[in-house]
Predict the 3D structure of the following.
Amino acid sequence: MRAEEQAAAGSAAVASDYYRATAWQPERESLPRRRGQMDKRSRSFRFQWAAGHKLSKEYVSDVVPGDFLETWPPGQDEDTNWYVEQGRGKEKKRVPMAWINQESIRWATLPSSSWLWLILKGFAKVIIFGGGALLLLQLLDIVFLSGRNPAPYITEFFLPALLYVGAPCAAVWGGVSFVEHLFPSWIYKDPKGPLWEFNRRTGLVTAFRDPKKKRDAGQIAWQSPFAEFDGYIHSGPTHQGLPLYYGAMVHRFREEALPLTAFQAASANDEDHKALWNFWLQYMDSTAPLPDIPLFEPHRSKDPVTAEHDRRIGRNSRYWRNMDDVTYKQKMDEMYKRCLKEFG
C-alpha cells in the first residue's frame, strides 16, 4: 500500500472513531424510510411548518450568510464559550452555558428583560433619526419650495415634536447607553439556559425547554438526527405589507420544528436564510471539512476530517487571523455577492 493510501486509511479510521454512528452523511439521505417512520404530524402542524419553500440538502462549500464575517471577525477571542456564574461563595464558578466549536453549536440568548431595554434603545434611535430627518425635510420644503412662512410650522408642530417625542426618545437612548457603558451586567444578564444545539460529532439536533421557566431551563424538549430534518423558508407580511422571511427546520415524521431566527433574524430577503441552511448542511456533514470562516479557524485542527483536508491542500492554519483589514473587507463583500449569486 502506498504512503498516501496508508495516510488516507489512517485518517478514515480516526474519523470513524471520532464521529458517532448517527453523524450525518449526505449519501445516507437516499436510504429508504425505516419501519415505523410514518408521518405522525397533524394537519395544523404541517400547515404551519411545512407550507413554506422547502430547501435542497445539496450545498455549496464555504458559503455562509455574509453577516457571519461581520459578527465573528478574525480578531475575536478564540474561546467561543459563553460562560455564566453558578453557585455562591466558595462554590461559585464559571461554567459554559453555550458554545461554538468543532463538535457542536449550542445556542443561548439574553433573557427577555435584557432584550426589552435593547429594543427600546433601538426603537428610540430609529425614531430620532427617522423622525428628525422627516421633520427637517418638511421644514426645508416649507422654506425653499413652498415659500410659506415657517413660523407656524415650527411653533405648532416642529417644537412640540421635539419636546414630546424627540426628548423622551433621546432620554431612553442616552439612559440605556449610559447603563450599558458603566453597568453592563444590568443590561446583559446571563441566560437561564440554552435554546438548541447542533452536534456535528453525533449528528443530533437538540431543542431545550423554554429557559424562561427556571425549572425547565436546560431540560431537553426533543432530540432527533439532523438527517430527519428539512429546511424551509417561511414568509409573512410586515405591517407595511412587505414580505419578511425567516428560516426553520422541520422534522419529516414527527411534530418537531425549530425556527432559526435566534441565529439569523427575519429579514426582507430570503438569500440570507438559504445561506444559513447551506451553512448548517456543511457544518453537520461529517464527511466534509468545517466551513472555512474565521469562526472555526481556531478549532479546525481538532476535527479529523477538517484537519486532514487542511493538510492535504496545505492550508495556512492562520489564514484568516493573519489577514489585513482591507483584504478582509474584500472577503466580506465577496461573501455577500456569493450569497446573492447562489441564492438570490
